[in-house]
Amino acid sequence: MSETGRGASARSATEDRETVVSRVIDAPRELVFEAFTEVRHLSRWWGPTGFTTTTRSFEFRVGGEWDFVMHGPDGTDYPEWITWTEIVPPEEITLLHGEYRGDPNAFESVLTFVPDGAATRIEMRTVFPTKELRDEAVETYHAIEGGRQTLGNLAAYVTETVRRGAED
């Protein structure tokens, strides 16, 4: 499901600076995409297991920003900032993610939403400015596992939303 770019069949110019995490979610693409684009959804599932978020501002549009704090299970707060650079509903979102606007260590993520029968395959490809920053994210901050957990939280949230919708 996840890889760090090593061993991928198609080599790219950013291979040594990227991570890829994917998951199939048992929900329609439009609903999965919506969960990424509305703060009322994002604030309920974003982040690795045990993390919560507090949104300071949110404006989903190209050039818009999401300024928020992730609260770790140990009580540590992590300032976060995202700006969207491309939005193709309901197929793809490209964003720049750092700790603050202008962060030189900000990384780019491309999220693709592909129908997989009645489900959706989501892929999150992240490219870091340097190989060293990628390695630090993977080895120190467990970016691959965190990405898996984040997509797992999304899957749980979206499938619960679908289930509740079927009951209404």
Automatic annotation (TrEMBL):
It comes from the Bacteria. InterPro entries: ASHA1/2-like_C, START-like_dom_sf. Residues 26-158 form the Activator of Hsp90 ATPase homologue 1/2-like C-terminal domain. Pfam families: AHSA1. Belongs to the AHA1 family. This is ATPase. It comes from Allosaccharopolyspora coralli.
